[in-house]
Amino acid sequence: MFDTMTTTKTVGALCGSLLVLLLSGWAASGLYSMGGGHGDEHAQAYVIATGDDAGGAAEEAPAEVDLETLLASGDAANGAKIFKKCQACHKLEDGANATGPTLFHIVNRPVDSIGSFSGYSGALAKVVDVWTPEHLFNYLEDPKSFAPGNKMAFAGLKKAQDRADIIAYLENPGG
């Protein structure tokens, strides 16, 4: 059934198909080229006026919020909702460790101070001594850059208000 002539025809058809495909791709790229050949001068086609007299070069920096004011405005009820992200590794009961140490009374507690938790890396103790609200606020933004080498795999909370809310919840989890 399969003789030498059938095999030769099949291989020839495959090679011919590949050649047609490559040639059509080359022709299409020549016809529909998106760049090059227009010289070194490039100009913007149009400008959209935004009302900025400086031409959009100077952007206003976001207003810095006082950390004490932000922490004082923390909403513990919203912090309880945000804490659900933490519950995968932390518990809020006294002495109840999980993958991470208990967060019971963490605010103003010494770092690496839970004796029943043996998973500390020591990286946090090199950076801070006590978990003040300010230290927690900065740590929760990006744990890996705050204390390189720590074991917390959490990416962080980017919104400042979320961090303030969770700190308010950790200060007073019952109310």
* Poorly predicted residue ranges: none
- The helix count comes to 6
**What's the Cα radius of gyration?**
31 Å
Characterize the largest beta sheet: strand count, sense, and whether it forms a barrel. Answer: none
- What is the succession of H and E elements? HHHHHH
Q: How many distinct beta strands?
A: 0
- Give the proportion of residues in helices: 25-40%
Task: Please give a quick description of this structure.
With 175 residues, the chain is mainly alpha-helical. Helix content is 38%, strand content 0%.
If you had to describe this structure to a student in words, what would you say it looks like?
The chain has 175 residues and is mainly alpha-helical. It is 38% helix and 0% strand. The chain is built from 6 helices and no strands. The chain has helices at residues 4-31, 67-72, 76-82, 133-141, 143-146, 160-171. It starts with a helix and ends with a helix. The model has no long low-confidence stretch (mean pLDDT 84).
